[in-house]
Amino acid sequence: MDLLRPSVCVIAASIAFTYIAGSVAAQNPAPVKPSQRTALPKFITTQKTMVEPSTLRRGASGKLVITLAVEDTFHIYDPNPGDPFLTATKVTPVKVPGVVFGKPIWPLPITVKGAKVHEGTVVVTIPFTIKPSAKPGKSTFGATFYAQGCNATTCYPPATFTVTVPVSIKD
């Protein structure tokens, strides 16, 4: 019986390390470079990314509009899910020289069993301002998401994905 105890301790320590390492990685996702466009996770069925207005000029403001379709019966958590143990969705605009992005604006969440979530079609808007000193020409606007899709019985692992749209900045 005493021979089993060290191996049980090793297994328990391995499980604890894996859990802690996974939690730290989940809270601090690796940054994604703009050139690394990623596939959508299973819980996001489609996405559409666009800018408004469609003609971008130096010194002007606009908004990056990202529409995600969450898989039927699934939800993603709000950036403030109401429980620190839930995987908050994080959205980080892709850095573009000469462009200043504001804080992402989310639709109102719904509450499911005390958690704030988003289901169905989710539209996230990110305001931006193009500095007068921005270089005219082609660019790419976008955002990196870190999210987890769950339903009543299943949670997919948290995923990081990037959505982009080509733009042209004019004088």
Characterise this structure:
The protein has 2 domains: 1-30; 32-170, Thiol:disulfide interchange protein DsbD, N-terminal domain (Immunoglobulin-like, Sandwich), CATH 2.60.40.1250. The longest helix has 24 residues, at 4-27. The protein has a 4-stranded antiparallel β-sheet, with no helix packed on it. The radius of gyration is 20 Å and the shape is elongated. It has one helix spanning 4-27; strands at residues 44-52, 56-57, 61-70, 75-77, 90-93, 99-101, 110-112, 115-119, 121-130, 137-147, 149-150, 159-170. The chain is mainly beta and 171 residues long. It is built from 1 helix and 12 strands. The relative contact order is 0.24. The N and C termini lie far apart (78 Å).
Q: Give the assembly state of these chains.
A: single chain
Topology, number of strands: 12
How confident overall, as mean pLDDT? Answer: 84
> SSE string, helix = H, strand = E?
HEEEEEEEEEEEE
Distance between the termini: 78 Å
Q: Over the alpha carbons, how many angstroms does the gyration radius reach?
A: 20 Å
**CATH architecture grouping of the largest domain:** Sandwich
List keywords for this structure.
171 residues; 2 domains; 4-stranded mixed sheet; 1 helix; 12 strands; 43% strand; elongated
Summarize the structure in short.
With 171 residues, the protein is mostly beta strands.
Topology:
Layout: H1 4-27, E1 44-52, E2 56-57, E3 61-70, E4 75-77, E5 90-93, E6 99-101, E7 110-112, E8 115-119, E9 121-130, E10 137-147, E11 149-150, E12 159-170
Parallel strand pairs: 2-12
Antiparallel strand pairs: 1-3, 3-9, 4-8, 4-11, 5-10, 6-9, 7-8, 10-12
